[in-house]
Amino acid sequence: MSQHAFKNKGRIRVNNKIIAAFIVTLTYFLFYLFTANAVLIQLQPMDATISVRGGGFPHFKIGGRYLLRKGNYRLNISHPGHYSLFETIEVNEDPSQNFVFDLKRLPGKLVIRTNPESEITLKVDDNVFDPSQNGEFIISAGEHALEILTERYFAVEQDILIQGMEIQ
């Protein structure tokens, strides 16, 4: 047998291995594609980042939906100015499933300055906050009823909106 014929046999074996690997990969992908469920994960805020872990198969996102097989998945959802959320979801055999997550905003900083400078007591929604020397208070995001009390002055009452997200 010539050396040239021997080289061709080696190429055919390599080509068979490549074809076999391609067929196995294609079969794996098609199995996943036809057995996965379309899962819609809606986030608020909408541009939050999400990490999906678990399931033993890769996670594809197609057209705003994740293709996930039946099982439990761990989600890590984050967005600047919001508390991160770590949640576990269970994907069942339903062909289409929806999960909704609303991230809670971080508290905001309320700064109160008085003239003349004096120590104040702050009540937010009837909850008393300890006196602050620098006039800074950490308040949860949302609408609140505010009352400022100090000695020898009238109380100040006002409704306020705290943006949160660590904004002053």
Largest sheet: 4 strands, mixed
Mean pLDDT: 83
Number of strands: 13
User: What is the third-level CATH name, the topology of the largest domain?
Assistant: Immunoglobulin-like
Enumerate the spans where pLDDT stays under 50 for 5 or more consecutive residues: none
- The assigned CATH architecture of the largest domain is Sandwich
As for the number of domains, it is: 3
Question: What's a quick, concise take on this entry?
Answer:
By secondary structure, the chain is α+β, with helices and mostly antiparallel strands.
Features of the shown structure:
3 domains; 4-stranded antiparallel beta sheet; 4-stranded mixed beta sheet; Immunoglobulin-like; rod-shaped; alpha+beta; 1 helix; 168 residues
